[in-house]
Amino acid sequence: MTQLNEQEAFETSSLIGHSARVYALYYKDGLLCTGSDDLSAKLWDVRTGQCIYGIQTHTCARSTRQKLVTGSFDNTIACWSGARALKSLQFRGHTAWTTNDDLDILVSGSADFSVKIWSMSAGACLNTLTGHTEWVTKVMLQKSEVESMMHSPGDYILLSADKVIKMPDPANLSLLSFGEVFALLFDNHFLYVMDLRTEAISGRWPLPAYRKSKRGSSFLAGVTSWLNGLDGDNDSGLVFATSMPDHSIHLVLWKENG
Predict the structure, then answer these.
(1) 140 DSSP β-pair partners
(2) Residue 223 CA from chain centroid, whole number
(3) Of 239, 188, 192, 184, which is closest to residue 211 (Cα–Cα)?
(4) Cβ neighbourhood burial of 69 (10 Å; 0-12, 13-18, 19+)
(5) How far apart are CA 7 and CA 42, in angstroms?
(6) Buried b or exposed e, range 82-121, using 16+ CB within 10 angstroms
């Protein structure tokens, strides 16, 4: 907590390799996947800054340890497999997505304001959901962890969004993520950590003049487990990433041995 208050908890670095606007960012397990208007997708190790591999394909990208999924403004989504990144499936119709290997499901959103559910193995569209009035830029499929009137623990919940969530605050802070103890927010100049128990800002970190995307996909939160409380072990890895006007990616990370 002292490090957060004194702006000593984080450090920054940059990833350089794209030659045009970086439009898509996705982070998991220490790896950052980026998609660019140079029609390439790259997979990076955020701690070393090394590009593990890259492919010439689409503008949006998302990765797991087993596969890379990319999307494009040509309204197709492709799934790539193996160390050589060979295309294994192609889904026509959408540009933003999430996957779930346990259910053999890929969920996608698009500029046509709809959400589609696909079979990963068959490449077939199983269902189309409507109701949004803007471009669907974010889709999430995750298990419920609590009992509610609509869901039981273990049920899968599909979430979709068509714009960045804004905090009703005169400072116009944007909410990145939140947990039981902390919330991560940002504005045009700083990254903020808010203590939800007191609703006070615990710390802030300066941000460069990042690329502001109307679609809300040029920045993301990294590891979020620490938002449920710092335990001495979860203050590591990526905190925040954003694409820059010079086509690089600016990273905010927990300081090693900090």
Answers:
(1) 159
(2) 10
(3) 188
(4) buried
(5) 31
(6) eeebeeebebeebbbbbbeeeeebbbbbbebebbbbbebe
Q: Which two tokens stand for residue 85?
A: 């990144």
Determine the 3-state secondary structure of 227 from DSSP. Answer: helix
| Euclidean distance between CA atoms 58 and 156, whole angstroms | 29
- Name the token pair of 202: 């615990």
Q: What is the pLDDT of residues 158-213, one digit of tens each?
A: 767 665 444 444 456 778 888 889 999 988 889 999 998 888 898 999 999 876 66
- The H-assigned helical ranges of the chain are 2-5
Q: d(Cα 10, Cα 95) in Å, to the nearest integer?
A: 33
pTM for the whole structure:
0.64
Rounded to 5 degrees, φ, ψ at 236 are: -150, 160
Round to whole Å and give the CA distance between 219 and 222.
10
